[in-house]
Amino acid sequence: MSFPAAPTRTAPAIPPAASPDAEDALTALVSLVQEDLEACNREIIARMQSPVQLIPQLAAHLIAAGGKRLRPLLVLAAARLCGYRGQRHVGLAACVEFIHTATLLHDDVVDESDLRRGQASANAIFGNKASVLVGDFLFARAFQLMTADGSLEVLDILCGASATIAEGEVLQLVIQNDTSSTEAQYLEVIEGKTAALFAAATRVGAVVAERPKAEADALEAYGRNFGIAFQLVDDALDYSAEQERLGKTVGDDFREGKITLPVLLAFARGDETEKTFWRRVLEEKRQEEGDLAHALSLMHRHRAIEDTIARARHYGDLALQGLAPFADGPEKQALAGVVEFCIARAR
Length: 347
Fold this sequence. Notes:
Blueprint: H1 22-32, H2 34-47, H3 54-64, H4 70-81, H5 88-111, E1 115-116, E2 119-120, H6 122-126, H7 128-149, H8 152-175, H9 183-208, H10 213-237, H11 243-246, H12 252-256, H13 261-269, H14 272-283, H15 291-301, H16 304-321, H17 330-344
Antiparallel strand pairs: 1-2
Helix pairs in contact: 1-17, 2-5, 3-7, 4-5, 4-9, 4-17, 5-7, 5-8, 5-9, 7-8, 8-9, 9-10, 10-16, 13-16, 16-17
EC number: 2.5.1.90
GO molecular function, one term: all-trans-octaprenyl-diphosphate synthase activity
Organism: Pseudoroseomonas cervicalis ATCC 49957
């Protein structure tokens, strides 16, 4: 399996250039579920408490670092889209955020990252051991929230997503620094480490509302394709964005030897001299001053960034198709708009 070629379309669902209102789409989504989001945030803060003081200290650092709460927002908005008016989705939104935050803590240790969203990462301040253990604590809190919900179906969805995330991260570790990696392997990585939780978040919204399986499947497809688009944009931004916009320094993936789609495209389209360069800097990790600039020039030459964004738009369109079974309304409009917001980050 590999990525489809970027499609030719006469009436794209997501415009190639970012709309000036793109960021307003995220604001609209937040406004739509404001009360639920505030309740979710209260649940998160309450569940982060512990008599072991290092845990709330490190947790407070994560909260201060910000973040869009995108995954819990998807739980809340999907439940509203399906007509749910109870409170189960609030705890499950907090659960999804705990799973996400735990994986970030672990990822920063594995990647030896010093920055997270433009600020010092937790492992840079508190150390690797504390970050791993607090990540474990957050996973445990997530499982407590799942069991408190009482639904075996919800438990199956979120436990399955947690396992898939771990598999995606391990696969990324396996193919890291390997320029012979395929697009199919890369897609498997991002489906696991990012898209699985997006898909679980949106499916849970349908499940708590007791909607038909066809609607749950459609929302899951929306979430999965949105997650793929989101990660593709993130991987493109690593080679094209300002540090303030991305929340990390440009070229982090390059320095870590991560094999992402921009690298795969530039490598496949390059001549043997260029392939030798990529093997030296990524496989052998022999990086010299000026190598990042040269990598960026090769990506520009072979349109690797532009084509990665085109693939993201393709998956964004697939995500929008997942909303087709649902009646028009503010929830559907907000969920469609946040896909545009994702793509607009690459402008």
